[in-house]
Each structure stands twice: as C-alpha cells, then as structure tokens.
Amino acid sequence: MKKIFIIGIMCVMGAMGAKAQFDETNNLFYHLVRTPQSNYLNPAFYPIKTTFYINLPGTELQFGSPLAMTDVIHYDKSSQTTVIDLDNILSCLSKENKFRLGANVNVFGFGFKVKNMFFTFSSRLTNTVNMGLPVSAIDALRVGNMNDDGTVRPVVELLSGDVVNATSYLETALGAAYSFDDLHLTVGLRAKLLYGVLNIRTDNTKLEFVTDPSMDSVTARMYYEVQSAACVPYDTATGFDINVGDLFNLGKANTGLAFDLGAKYDWGPFTFSLAINDLSAGIHWKNNVITWRPQGGQGVIEFTGMDVSSILDHGEMSTDSLSAYIEERLGNMTPTMVDSGDYWFAVPTKINLGASYSFAKMFRAGLLFHGQFDRGLLCKGNDGVENTFRFNTTLSCSVNLANWVEAVVGSSIVYDGESLDLFNPGFGLILTPGTFFQLYFMTDYVSSFYLTDSKAFNIKVGLGLLF
C-alpha cells in the first residue's frame, strides 16, 4: 500500500516543471549605448551617433528551472548505479517553484531622431509558459502514504491550486525620448497596446488520496478547472474559427494598455538611469473565454482492488470490459465546456536601476539592478492578487574591439522569489560591418556551461540597420 501512489505521481510529474531563476529581460543590453535594443529596457535610451535605425526580426529563447539534471539524477559511486535522489529534489524546491519557457519574437521596429527628440516604434510577440512542480507530490513519491513513524497518512495531497498558465500576446508600442542638453538629462515614455492571442490557466485544481485506516481501500478526490481565452472562438466540433475581420477589430479583442517610463543622467563619464516598464493592469480577457470542468463535479474514486476475472476471457483481455471498468470510475471526470466570465491577467511590471562608467569611449563597466513583479491572475472581488517579486543584479563590461565589433561579458546574482543564485554568467557579440548593418548574439543567465548542471539560459539573436 505504501507504494500505491507511484504510478499516478510519476504521470503527474511528467507534466509538471519547476520555478524559473530568470526573467525575459536580457540585462547585458542595458549599457550598450550603440545598440537600439537598449531602448526596450529603458525608453530614455537610444543609440548614439544614429539618426535612424530599423530593427529587423529577431528571436529570444528562455528557459529556467530550480532543478538541474544532476539535482534529479546522479551516479552513486558506492553502488555503481544511477539513482533518482528524491531527498535532494525536495531540498531544492519550495511550494511556489515554477518551470518557465519563453519564446519572444521581435517582429519589426524603427526609431529616428529629430533635434533633441528620438521617436520609436516596435512590435513583438511574447509567449510564456509556467508550470508548477508540487512538492507534496514529490514527497508522496518518497514516503508513499506512510509517516516516518509507520502510521498511515490519512490524506496525501498531490496537486493543488493553479498548476499551469500560458500566455501569448502581441505588443505594439510608440515611444519618445527628449534630451535636456543643459541638464544632461534625458527622459522617455512609451505607450503599448497589448493584443491577447491566447491565455490558458488552471484554477482550483486538486488531486488528493484518502487512505482508509484499515488500509483496505484508497479514495481519490479529483477536481479541475481549465480556463482559456483566445483571439478567435473555439468550437469542440470544428476547432478554432478564424475570421480575419475579427482579428483586427479591437472592439472584439482581448486587449490591454501598458506604459514604460525612463530617465538617464550623464555626469561626465558616469551615467545613472532608472526605468519602470509595463505599468499596466494587464490584459482584459473578455472574449472567447471558456472553462472546462468535470461533468460530474468533483470526482471521487474509491479503489478496493480489481476483479481481473471480469476483464479476462480464457486468458485474453477484453478491451470492451476494460473500457467499461475505466468509464465506470473515471466517467464523471470527462470535461464539459461552459461559457465563463471575463478576467484580467497581469503582465510583469519591471524596474531597472543602473549606473555605468565609460573609459575613453572604448570600455564601459555597468551595474544594473532589475526587479520584477509577477502578479498573475487579477482575481474578482476580494480574492486578492498573487504576487511574486524576483530580482537580479548584473555587473557587465563591454569593449569596442574595433569600430564595428563590440563584445560584452557579465554575471548576475539572481533571486527567483525563493532562493539566491550567485553566479549566472553571460556574454555577447555585436557586429556592425559597414557601420550600418548590425548583427547581434547575446546569451544571459547561463547558470552552468555544463548542460547537466544548467538551470537557466536566455538567448537572443537579431538583425538591424543603422544610419
């Protein structure tokens, strides 16, 4: 009975992840004064010696987890076997751990200077997936339904709360910066229209096992809610119904507004800067909102054993009988689709506080503090807001190796809301042949150069034209 949960928990673990130790910002761009990408991090920044630039499509990939492969699996020299170390996994996790994946695409952008002002336009598609890895499920896999003193644990919780959420939205932005030359001060503002493409999240998800004191039976209590919203309607029979007219009708869209504020002050070779990005209530998901729930409400399944003779016929398994057996116990968990009310889902609000020092226009050292508020679902009524604050501090150095080659290296101290990670190196290379065509490659938050020890990385690749 102690191991009765192993198969079920392993299935759950296969669909879960852990909490990220990074954010979607590549901090090494912040102090690069010759690249337009720094403008995304602070609207008061724009590339020096550039009157007009065009950002061509670029891609950013993100990955983060509190667990490296070596935290889960390692080689035991004493037994000469490969083992899964559950105790070590539990020591690395907390109940709020998330596994995060992201893929962002810079679709198009440009900027131009008019006297003391610099104007920008940008559009990009942001995609994020967060999955939770419940610590209680790992602990149940380790000890089953028995306490350390040999007594039976009456209730074993495997899943609880919002397990998965995924968001995709298109961001279109207009920005402007103004330089007060006499004050050595530049201020910037950017307004963004957020167009929701897809949002999926789970609410009130719960899975727990209740063991009878006599250990003659186990009862499983299961409940789930999966809510989704999309830019186009969904039908169970036909799938997504794509109407091009509806895609461009903002009155029928899931939209939101966000604002970036920035400032920088130049004091000789020093530059001090501050930016608050994505000040927003988030995206109002009001159209094509659907919720899936179990047909029978909360599912309760009692397992007292299986009469295999009912599904065997002369040594052969009857698939019809097996299907009927599964349907009898899981039929009430079949999802039913219902219309659901609107809701708000926040985009992370970020703060950047930086300082840098330039040496003879060839070498620049910079320090950046980056904080991020992840608020998630903005609940109705007085249900409250789920808040997580993560931050990192990045020290970087950039060197102009030639008029068209710039290299940057750095390292970050990262706090993901639960723990500190003291060493996360990064490096990048910016090539500008002919002084107008720019190619950049940047990677940040590389927690380890060994794949089996790596917990996070952020990679960005793109092209641009400078004039």
Could you walk me through the main structural features you see in this protein, from its secondary elements to its overall organization?
This protein is mostly beta strands and 467 residues long. Helices cover 10% and strands 54% of the residues. It has one domain (6-295, 334-466): Porin. It has a 20-stranded antiparallel beta sheet that branches. A three-stranded antiparallel beta sheet has the order 15-21-24, with no helix packed on it. A two-stranded antiparallel sheet has the order 3-4. Helix 1 runs antiparallel to helix 5 and helix 4 (86-92) packs antiparallel against helix 5. The model is unreliable at 1-24 and 379-385 (pLDDT under 50).
Fold blueprint:
Layout: H1 6-14, H2 38-41, E1 52-55, E2 58-64, H3 69-72, E3 73-76, E4 81-84, H4 86-92, E5 98-114, E6 117-132, H5 135-143, E7 155-161, E8 164-180, E9 185-211, E10 218-230, E11 234-235, E12 239-240, H6 244-247, E13 255-267, E14 270-280, E15 283-285, E16 289-294, E17 299-303, E18 312-313, E19 316-317, H7 319-330, E20 335-339, E21 343-345, E22 349-359, E23 363-374, E24 377-378, E25 388-402, E26 405-415, E27 420-431, E28 437-444, E29 456-466
Antiparallel strand pairs: 1-5, 1-29, 2-5, 2-29, 3-4, 5-6, 6-8, 7-9, 8-9, 9-10, 9-13, 10-16, 10-17, 11-12, 13-14, 14-22, 15-21, 16-20, 18-19, 21-24, 22-23, 23-25, 25-26, 26-27, 27-28, 28-29
